[in-house]
Amino acid sequence: MLRSRYRAPNSGDGMHEYSLVSSLMDEIDRQAGAHRATSVQKVHVRLGEMAGVDADLFRTAFEMIQPHTICAEAELVLHSEPAGWACPLCGRRHPLGATLRCEACDVPLRPDGGRDLVLERLEMEVSHV
Amino acid sequence: MCEDCGCGDSELVPVEVQHRILSENDRVASHNREHFAEQGVLAINLMGSPGSGKTALLEASVGLGIGSISAVSGDLATDRDADRLVRKGIVARSITTGSACHLDASLLHHSLHDEELAKAVAASEFFFIENVGNLVCPAIYDLGQAANVVALSVTEGEDKPIKYPVMFDRADLVVVTKVDLLPYLPGFSLDALKDGLAQVMPDPRVLFVSAVTGEGMEGWKAWLLQQRARLLESVADAQEYGHGHGHEHDHEHGHAHSHHDHSHDDGSHGHHDHDHDHSDHSTPHVHPTR
């Protein structure tokens, strides 16, 4: 069978994942400064299924940018969060791919989770002086 | 681990952050949104693939009699789209993004430092932000718009909503363009398009238009006028609330789609976030603090 999926080898810096990683690094710098960290060891990021961010590209961008930052040795841990919709009346949740209407209550569902890209937690090396 | 003697030994410290990575963009977007609301101008973020007919839709909007229009066009390298709008008598500027595949709130904000454009925007009823042609990245950047509109041409195929769910998840309205070409597209199924939209939009609002024949343009006009009326109403509400007058009001605003605009919790529609679906209309309305 022929392969029908192809990803350009050099996706380039036009991808928005690069600008998102830059914003991420800005926030990490602020946190590291506030805690007087000497290095960052782990970066935990929550990535929603409908956040519009490609996990592989995000990781590639992170790895490309990290050598020049306080995250040079850091491991990026991506926690993926499935997208959901919920019925505003009965609260029943539906995943991506469902028709977005609650059959029981006959109302449109509401988006419920899986849209955000969030820096959740850092593990930083802090020296005691 | 040495914690007392000051020898410089280090310790691994976990820090809880919970920082939305787009929060800086969203802060600037809120600032833009406040400006547009103060000026009473309805800002529309018009997105869609390259060649989906975004510029043609705006060109065809000039003759509709909806009042004054201003615009910016996002483009990787050229001013061609903005030039087309200028030729139609619209005050328009291009925002060339270089390699970036989308507009962000700060690019838009900086474009409004152009004095002539800023004046035109303030004096207009509608400000169209024609985004970079792309069905992926523009969706996640709030610009400060009152509504997101996605242009989808019939020649792109009916499976686009399922292939690009994030774009349609953020859409307030889908304008299906180039419907004059339908006779030449025997394989195109409107039902398949509607089924696809129903999987990515809880309450899809769809218009079918042709900028060439003018078909469906009255519906587009009606939607625009309705959105602007709602903007002005919410600004008036906010002002009244700001002056400390608690009041009751009736929630029959005549909206054709009272469910839809309140179904998003993603923060991209911050101008009008009070709930119109109260079952008890006699309850005094509590406005959200903003």
Q: Can you describe what's shown?
A:
The complex is a heterodimer of chains A (about 130) and B (about 290). Chain A is an alpha+beta fold and about 130 residues long. Helices cover about 25% and strands about 35% of the residues of chain A. Chain A has a single domain, classed as hypothetical protein PF0899 fold, CATH 3.30.2320. Chain A is built from 2 helices and 8 strands, in the order αβαβββββββ. In chain A, α1 (about 15-35) packs across α2. Residues about 1-10 of chain A have low confidence and may be disordered. With about 290 residues, chain B is α/β, with parallel strands linked by helices. Helices cover about 35% and strands about 20% of the residues of chain B. Chain B has a 7-stranded parallel β-sheet, sandwiched between helices. Chains A and B meet through α1, β1, β6, β7 and β8 of A and β1, α7 and α8 of B. β8 (about 115-125) of chain A pairs antiparallel with β1 (about 10-20) of chain B.
Please tell me what the overall shape of chain B is: globular
Radius of gyration of chain B: 22 Å
Using a beta-carbon cutoff below 8 angstroms, give the protein chain pair with the largest interface and the number of residues from each chain: A-B, 50 and 46 residues
The whole-angstrom Rg of chain A is 19 Å
Mean pLDDT of chain B: 85
Distance between the termini of chain B: 47 Å
Structural class call of chain B reads alpha/beta
% residues in beta strands of chain B: 15-25%
Percent of residues in helices of chain B: 25-40%
Shape of chain A: elongated
Q: What is the name of the CATH architecture of chain A?
A: 2-Layer Sandwich
Short description:
The complex is a heterodimer of chains A (129) and B (290). Chain A is of the alpha+beta class. Chain A is 23% helix and 33% strand.
State the main characteristics:
heterodimer; A: 129 residues; alpha+beta; hypothetical protein PF0899 fold; three-stranded mixed beta sheet; three-stranded antiparallel beta sheet; 2 helices; 8 strands; 23% helix; 33% strand; elongated; disordered N terminus; B: 290 residues; alpha/beta; seven-stranded parallel beta sheet; globular
